[in-house]
Write a structure and sequence with these properties.
Chain lengths: 116, 111
């Protein structure tokens, strides 16, 4: 079974530029998450989708971050304009139905962003 | 605000010893708990999940859950240098709204 796919793996941009990250979840997984992990910290949830609807985006800085999951499969996370403090790993994860206590989440390899 | 707390470490143990990692959580509605291992530069990978009070064993790993104390722990027996990594504790509520991660504990197993 293929895992969570993410691209690009690494990106270096200047502040105020824009960047987009792509994620393809595990086949059949209805729930998709985007996490931000700053070096030395645990992952912080940015946004959670159930199929193509947003479940939780309370910690997403909506003035600069946006995300979509058209057709309930792939997802894109965009940052525009980027700030220095956005330098982090952006982890995409997926799980089956969110209502089942037995389900856990599986992470992709992450997209490493450096803003200079 | 739902929080998961962990000592950041580093926790150093000699090879062959038992490593004990601890975690507390604030949300009494949390029902499921997970331990992830994260090697430097890599994404988190699931080690164990636990849902009921008591112990759950899987090979060299034992997870312990005490919901009354809002406490979760992970014991690693016969620690190996390859166990050196950051261990993330995570909780999830009964509705699966989201996974909340702690900051992680860095473990170093010394040869």
């Amino acid at each position: 079974e293929a895992g969570v796919a993410q691209s690009p793996r690494y990106k270096i941009i200047e502040k105020r530029q824009s960047v987009a990250f792509w994620c393809n979840p595990i086949s059949g997984h209805a729930t998709l998450y985007w996490y931000q992990q700053i070096l030395g910290q645990g992952p912080k949830l940015l946004i959670q989708f159930q199929n193509n609807g947003v479940v939780d985006d309370s910690q997403l800085p909506k003035d600069r971050f946006s995300a979509e999951r058209l057709k309930g499969v792939d997802s894109t996370l965009k940052i525009q304009p980027a700030k220095l403090e956005d330098s982090a790993v952006y982890l995409c994860a997926s799980s089956q139905t969110r209502g089942s206590s037995g389900n856990t989440i599986y992470f992709g390899e992450g997209s490493w962003l450096t803003v200079v | 605000q739902k929080e998961v707390e962990q000592n950041s470490g580093p926790l150093s143990v000699p090879e062959g010893a038992i490593a004990s990692l601890n975690c507390t959580y604030s949300d009494r509605g949390s029902q499921s708990f997970f331990w992830y291992r994260q090697y430097s530069g890599k994404s988190p990978e699931l080690i164990m999940s636990i849902y009921s009070n008591g112990d759950k064993e899987d090979g060299r790993f034992t997870a312990q859950l005490n919901k009354a104390s809002q406490y979760v722990s992970l014991l690693i027996r016969d620690s190996q240098p390859s166990d050196s990594a950051t261990y993330l504790c995570a909780s999830r509520d009964n509705y699966g709204q989201n996974f909340v991660f702690g900051p992680g504990t860095r473990l170093s197993v010394l040869p």
